[in-house]
Amino acid sequence: MGYVESVNVAVVWTGAWTGRAGRTGIDKRPVTGPVEFTGTGVTGDSVCDTKHHGAWYQAAYSFDVEELRYWSAELGRELVPGNAGENLSLTGQDTSAAVIGERWRIGSAVLRVTGPRQPCRVFQGFWDVEQFIKLFTEHGRPGAYLAVEEAGRITAGDGVEVISRPEHGVTVGDVFALTMQRRGELSEHVAPVLPDLPEKWRAKVAKAL
């Protein structure tokens, strides 16, 4: 069972790379004590680009500490929890291998895996790595967005308990590979996931199929 390394909320930035919103909450920093997770998001966090972020199915974003270590080695600089813009930095929990629709109990909250993160220019600008969108996409381990099914409090050190998992077996990484890496050979495998995807993402995956 994995556990929460840290719970992170945003420090808002402005800058040339922040996109049309002109502000971004991608820079997230660990906080102490319990944090409330609700259907509308993470208490104390900031969502600046509400066109692309902040929907109910993006209430929280989770990313592996092991992936931060991978990118630290690749880029030659230390990345720490929160640097991928994640609310939940998880250790021992492979978020990209989570099944779409899988439900987690963390602390007193119940969260449901809804889909992969897609790299954007703001992410690339924040890390200041040329061609980072391409590098991140090729690596294919995007982390998982989460909906909050039962509001509750989460604290660093809480375990991640998988309480249900759909039988279709389609993972966050599978959906990412089909839609971002254009791996058409996955179409037959991914097709059964459509009912478990949020409507907006369902349409995108259906088009890729």
TrEMBL record:
Q: Which residues form the MOSC domain?
A: 29-163
The record's Pfam families line, in alphabetical order, gives:
MOSC
Q: Which PANTHER family match?
A: PROTEIN YIIM
This chain belongs to the protein called MOSC domain-containing protein
Protein source organism: Saccharopolyspora taberi
